[in-house]
Structures are given as structure tokens and as C-alpha cells.
């Protein structure tokens, strides 16, 4: 079943994961996309403000995006996203961490300029197995409305 705008009322939407993050993938992502010492070198990382090897925040965002895609976006009538409203990295993601993602529909409204679509704003919070919040982001996606609902708009 394809999820439409009407399937996203405000409130808790779902919890996804856990998803384990390996040392190898932390190093591979950092080497290619964010080659800062705290993401690549144990010794340098221990001297950094992160106090140990940690994944890039962009790696964490990529993982959470994949978790959302696998969890629901892949079966949603999504037309894309206008961007990210807010992103905060709250604690380091460590190799070996198991990530769980809580997703809430913060807002859902019909588009004024394109009434056949709605804008659903999600708040996603990633946590490790100890419950520590790793990141939080708020981002809208544009979702097609069901034909019957779109036909009544106006």
C-alpha cells in the first residue's frame, strides 16, 4: 500500500531499527566524505572534543535517512523535500552503536499552491541503545494526496 498525505496525522508515527553501525563503515564513510581526524584516527579522536572515534554527523544523517526510507518513505507517494528545517547533532555516534529512530509527524497541511499535495513535517530523533539522543532533525516532505481528497480541494 502506498502511503498518501492522509496517512500522516500529527503525532508519533513509528520507531525504526535498531541498526548497528560498524567501525569499518565509520572509517569508510569518513575516508570518502568527511576525512577529519576524529572520524579516522583513534589517537587523534581521543584528543578531540568527542573523546574517541566517532562517525561523521553526515554519516549519521545518511543512516537515519536510509532507516526512514526503509521504514516508510520508500512506500510513500513522496514528491521530494524542500530541505531540512533544523538539524542538531547531540552526541557522538560510536562504532558498535545500535541506532533506533523515533519519527513523529510534527505538522501536516495541504499545500496552498498545489492542493493535490500536502506538506508533512517530520521530527526524527536517533538514539543509541542506552537511550542517548544522537541527533534530531526536522524536515518536510511533499506528499501526494489521495485522488478523492484532492478532488474535493478548492
UniProtKB/TrEMBL annotation:
<dbReference type="InterPro" id="IPR002539">
    <property type="entry name" value="MaoC-like_dom"/>
</dbReference>
<protein>
    <submittedName>
        <fullName>MaoC family dehydratase</fullName>
    </submittedName>
</protein>
<dbReference type="InterPro" id="IPR052342">
    <property type="entry name" value="MCH/BMMD"/>
</dbReference>
<feature type="domain" description="MaoC-like">
    <location>
        <begin position="17"/>
        <end position="121"/>
    </location>
</feature>
<dbReference type="InterPro" id="IPR029069">
    <property type="entry name" value="HotDog_dom_sf"/>
</dbReference>
<dbReference type="Pfam" id="PF01575">
    <property type="entry name" value="MaoC_dehydratas"/>
</dbReference>
